[in-house]
Amino acid sequence: MPQTPSTSRPGDVAAKGEAGPAIGMLDHLELSIGGMTCPHCPAAIEKALRAVAGVAHAHVNLANALATIDFDSQQVKVADLLRAVRSAGYIA
After folding, report:
1. Does pTM surpass 0.90?
2. Residue 48 in 3-state DSSP?
3. How, if at all, do strands 66-71 and 27-32 pair?
């Protein structure tokens, strides 16, 4: 069950799941995002995250400033996801 951070700040990370050798195992990450100012911002962040090899799913919620990401930790590290968000011009 996803946690709803009540006092999260940009850069707060909550990782769940276990990456294992089995195909199809994905890690789940909830990431606080800062700097979103309009309804187009989530789409820009989602596009940046989906461009990272190993990201299976990315969704950004403007109302709670939270990105949920499913990714293969064998292909991508959390630092890569943070870099993608920051490269898109947002705070992570």
Report:
1. no
2. helix
3. antiparallel
Per-residue CA distances from 4 to 43, 50, 68 (Å)? 21, 23, 11
Q: Which residues contact 70 (CB under 8 A, 6 or more apart)?
A: 26, 27, 28, 29, 55, 56, 57, 58
Provide the angle, in degrees to the nearest 10, between the axes of the packed helices 78-87 and 41-50: 140
Which pLDDT belongs to residue 41?
Answer: 97
Alpha-carbon gap, residue 79 to 39, rounded angstroms: 26
Residues 39-83 pLDDT 10s: 999 999 999 999 999 999 999 999 999 999 999 999 999 999 999
Report the distance separating Cα 55 and Cα 49, nearest Å. 7
Nearest to 15 by CA among 65, 79, 63: 79
Q: How far apart are CA 43 and CA 51, in angstroms?
A: 12
Mean pLDDT (the chain) is 83
